[in-house]
Amino acid sequence: GQNIDQPTEMTATEGAIVQINCTYQTSGFNGLFWYQQHAGEAPTFLSYNVLDGLEEKGRFSSFLSRSKGYSYLLLKELQMKDSASYLCAVRAPNYGGSQGNLIFGKGTKLSVKP
Amino acid sequence: DTEVTQTPKHLVMGMTNKKSLKCEQHMGHRAMYWYKQKAKKPPELMFVYSYEKLSINESVPSRFSPECPNSSLLNLHLHALQPEDSALYLCASSQDPQASGNTIYFGEGSWLTVV
After folding, report:
1. CA-to-CA dists, residue A85 to B31, B38, B56, angstroms
2. Residues of B in contact with A89 (CB under 8 A)
3. pLDDT per residue as tens digits for the range A22-55
């Protein structure tokens, strides 16, 4: 079966650093995506990892360990506008045909406090 | 430009109505998707079109009928829906259905309420 786990909710303080973890067990793996979704809006692409290691994009970084089935999204210098849900999604072969489509975790709701 | 445009943004329909949701992208993407998202839940895949052909139907009831008139357009025809079908319907696209690393870009979604 396919399973993606991430914490349901997290709270952090403006200016701080927060790490959102994601673990997955899927039949095959073709990459892991992180999306940000504000309430009432569509998901917005943040990052993509297919090889082990860290990908950095400004205040956001994402890490992947394929052997551990583990990823995290790191947000630095938190701002109030970072309050949103963060979705971990795995692309698995043979799920949805061709190179596969996205299987989403349930999302982590991040609240940034002043 | 990574824009996927969906219309309408909000739709209220009765259980006997027939309506359509529309999606458009001009990025030359050859894979297009419909996802359904209920409140506080992750998106769930409904349909995948690959090179304008339906490649995946994730056991979606026949009251939802997708259509891909050309490589830029994707429609979702709605008929005899139930109140539990009320949700955010997300259209998405990616460049090449055969390539694993293509990012999937989402439109802003259409909020559907069935009364």
Report:
1. 26, 14, 27
2. 42
3. 999 987 888 899 999 998 888 999 999 999 999 9
